[in-house]
Amino acid sequence: MAALIPETAKRIFTPETLRSAAKQSQGCLVVPVRLRRAIKKYLREQEEPFLKRKVLRLSASFCEIKDVNLHLTTSTSKELVEDPFKSLEGSKRWKIKSAYGDIGLKYQDDETVAYVASRMPAVYSACYRVLKEVRRRLSGFSPARVLDFGAGTGSAFWALRDVWPQSLERVNLVEPSQSMQRAGRSLIQGAKNLPLIHSFDSIQSLSKNIEKSERQHDLVIASYVLGEIPSLQDRITIVRQLWDLTGDVLVLVEPGTPHGSKIISQMRSHILWMEKRKFRKSKGLNKESKDLVPLKTGAFVVAPCPHDGPCPLEKTGKYCHFVQRLERTSSQRAYKRSKGEPLRGFEDEKFCYVAFRRGQRPGEPWPLDGMTFETLKEQHAKRKSEDLEIDLEDLLKMQTIDAPSDVKDPVLYESDILESDINDEINDDGQEEGGEEETTQADLGGGWGRIIFSPVRRGRQVAMDVCRSTKRDGSEGAFEHIVVTKSKNPMLHHQARRSLWGDLWPF
């Protein structure tokens, strides 16, 4: 496979660019001041009493949905995911125009207010983390037309605006709850530079009210919604409909629970299986007639999986999920449940996700191809005597740089800092200034593994659980436990000590 790649296409990585490309996780995320202001204003306008009690009821509803899903029969799940047309029941269900909302959790006014107060900042943080990685992995991808399925109060929409503030032209929102639609409109009231927004109560309504040429979207996202639909058949039906509306990238996000991970794994398997079948058929048609134009068939996983094979975690008893820490807003600290103690100033939002792109996975060289590494002994042999003479200030600087980068739990984060201090960080367009733009991209050729759980640092070695591709074309993968030692590879050890859960790992 490597021989097919032109020499001019090969990228030369350095230790610095490797670390920059591998960095996908984020530290403690601060909810944008615009969103916090909108939430405060919305809750003041509602003047809802007993909001704490409503937040508890909403949490109980989520638990009830989870219990119902766990008791559903799974005997035909594998067959249905792999081929829903094998059974007559599956084919009949496909012809039924299912309407999301009739089979899921219905949000009335009380549930909507409780959701905005307690869950919206956390859902925003997970969506922002996922979409930020999609932007980093796909250079040049700037969606103009977006579909947000199960939009709710607009958590994913707020994340879209922060990740691609300039490219958004039209956003279609699908949300059956009228209460949530009203809340979403109230939250963005008065915002500047908004794209063209249209709301629909179902996919069928969207398809009827827009022209056929406008149904393809650059980006389709469904966040925290599939788990509220108790039927596996309905989930598959909806995901197939979403994929048909996807022109380039489809993103699915679910809570970081075993059930959420199972949903993501099932939808991942189904879409990849479906597109492989279409690709085989298109190859057969192209062989029969050379005049036919090759169709853009196939699909591959952009993130988090480095390969398109079966998930290697299926029979391990573990599940693939990630975590994003966020500073709690004042509404979360005021209304969320606590066990007799003050809530911490932060919370960790666990989530599962998968991002697909249409087409075939690009055949790119792996990041470590052609790189040579010196052992610690070889590096010491090259040292000169004058290099060992350092003063006390240089020694202190080196010790600071070499300190482990473990994230420590702070006692309290003050998320609602004074608005006067934040105004200086907002530009003339109302957009907050972000951090430095990433200059190094981790390609999609399969040479980057994914750190699934938190690395364990013991002395001069770092142990990590990594999901990686075992073939150059990304068709198969494996889950491996690797140990990086400082004596054998100081450069990779330096990178491993700074790697966090969710980062990439070069192979």
From TrEMBL:
Any Pfam family the entry gives: Rsm22
GO terms for cellular component = mitochondrial small ribosomal subunit
Q: Which Gene3D superfamilies match?
A: Vaccinia Virus protein VP39 (3.40.50.150)
Picking any one GO biological process from the record gives: translation
Report biased composition (Acidic residues) as residue ranges. 422-440
Report residue spans for region: Disordered: 422-447
Q: Does the keyword Iron apply?
A: yes
Q: Which UniProt keywords apply?
A: Iron, Iron-sulfur, Metal-binding, Mitochondrion, Transit peptide
Query: What are the protein's GO molecular function terms?
Result: iron-sulfur cluster binding; metal ion binding; methyltransferase activity; structural constituent of ribosome
Q: Where in the cell is it found?
A: Mitochondrion
Cited function: Mitochondrial ribosome (mitoribosome) assembly factor. Binds at the interface of the head and body domains of the mitochondrial small ribosomal subunit (mt-SSU), occluding the mRNA channel and preventing compaction of the head domain towards the body. Probable inactive methyltransferase: retains the characteristic folding and ability to bind S-adenosyl-L-methionine, but it probably lost its methyltransferase activity.
What name does UniProt use for this protein?
Uncharacterized protein
Q: What organism does the record attribute this protein to?
A: Punica granatum (Pomegranate)
